[in-house]
Amino acid sequence: MKLRARDDITDAEAEAISDAIGEIVEYASDVTFIAPKQELTHSTLLLEGLMCRYKDLSDGQRQITEIHVPGDFADLHSFTLKHLDHSMMTLTPCTIAKVPHTELTRITEAYPHLARVLWFSTNLDACIHREWEVSLGRRSALERTAHLFCELQQRLAIVEMASESDYAFPLTQTELAECLGLTSVHVNRVLKELRERGLVEFRGGRVTIHDLRELRRVAEFDPAYLYLEKRAR
Amino acid sequence: MKLRARDDITDAEAEAISDAIGEIVEYASDVTFIAPKQELTHSTLLLEGLMCRYKDLSDGQRQITEIHVPGDFADLHSFTLKHLDHSMMTLTPCTIAKVPHTELTRITEAYPHLARVLWFSTNLDACIHREWEVSLGRRSALERTAHLFCELQQRLAIVEMASESDYAFPLTQTELAECLGLTSVHVNRVLKELRERGLVEFRGGRVTIHDLRELRRVAEFDPAYLYLEKRAR
DNA sequence: CGGCAAATTGAACAGAGTCAAAACCAGTGG
DNA sequence: CCACTGGTTTTGACTCTGTTCAATTTGCCG
């Protein structure tokens, strides 16, 4: 369904994906289920919950490099990389479908257009990475935090898990800080300011947006990098 | 040659790539040759020179999100994205080969293994983006600058354009700042410190490394994210 | 020699980090 | 039903890394 939002997928292609799905697995919250260098034989299709990619530093610091929402083929890039240079962790309890790499080889060879759609979806991850680089490199803590809330609102809205004014986002402020390249103390102060300015509230694992237009203006959020429009075959 | 460093490419596959190459073009330095939203019909194989991807902010600030070295299929991701969300600019005079997307469709359908190798190369860009996120989010200005010098040393060494102790890197300090999410003034001070510590010197468009081991230690540089080892077919 | 972009330096300032304490809150067991 | 626990959030005071602004120097090129 999510792929169809951006590309025309034939019934045969959709069925090929369904057939490729192996085991369905549940993970608890806060579980690192892929470590760097671990050899991988399947990719993870996220059905329910939130997860993230992150890298550790030797002093215990951590940088989350992307958040995944339901519908994301979370580690499809492991199909070509064979092992990852980073870790993957659940942020909430998750339900995932495992898709063996051998099946991916089979269906991408049988359906070249589907191969390009999947390839596109890993390129979309790179688009998100680039936008985060801009946030981390150039936006202030406030703008950056606002931007993250805008991104998640948009991405969750696609899968009907966010309205214009609110969505579930059960991270701790420490995890938020690990996304934003800030300390949890500073994140707390920024959240206070966003709240006092009447833009967003982050509380009890929910984001409540009071003024989406203004929030986007503050964040300088332009959803172009999420490639929402439908693309030609 | 560069693809062969990481994957076994058959002669037929190599020939298919050669055949796919269209026009060879020269660009001057500091030319933005791809703007966001521009519809693209070919991808750019960088033969000579350095180029980068960057995003602009409304206040004139700019974040460079990746640097490309000779041998990189610099905007292969435009094959699946159709248009980019960012710009591409030359940092030096460049020679490039244009590869029409129609040709890419043809050769990836004819050679599925080659398709995966090309797919891999766009995933490698994402790996580099993630490492930059870590730098921008968690490393100090000094570590971050050291890390960039390590990355370029490694990537240029693959194409025999860098030794262990020096390589050409003709950027201005302002451009360096745009990579590092810093101001040019601060970059200047960081370069001074790196020089005084006897680690690296950046001068006259060259990087001279006096102590690579120590530089890597300071930067906490682990080349794993560049996937240098050869991978199974 | 002149012109100009790039590099360098200094001084003052601000955004974000550090450290430490306090308040809050959900879940647990008595 | 309530006290206890541990993790999370909140706040204050202080520090420091990196920015800003402005001036000066350097180096290249015609």
TrEMBL record, chains A, B:
Superkingdom per UniProt: Bacteria
InterPro entries hit by this protein: cNMP-bd_dom, cNMP-bd_dom_sf, HTH_CRP, RmlC-like_jellyroll, WH-like_DNA-bd_sf, WH_DNA-bd_sf
Cross-referenced PROSITE patterns: HTH_CRP_2
Coiled-coil ranges (or none): none
Annotated GO biological process: regulation of DNA-templated transcription
Domain HTH crp-type: 139-213
GO molecular function, one term: DNA binding
SUPFAM superfamilies xref list: cAMP-binding domain-like, Winged helix' DNA-binding domain
UniProtKB keywords: DNA-binding, Transcription, Transcription regulation
Protein name listed in UniProt: Crp/Fnr family transcriptional regulator
Organism placement in taxonomy: Bacteria, Pseudomonadati, Pseudomonadota, Alphaproteobacteria, Sphingomonadales
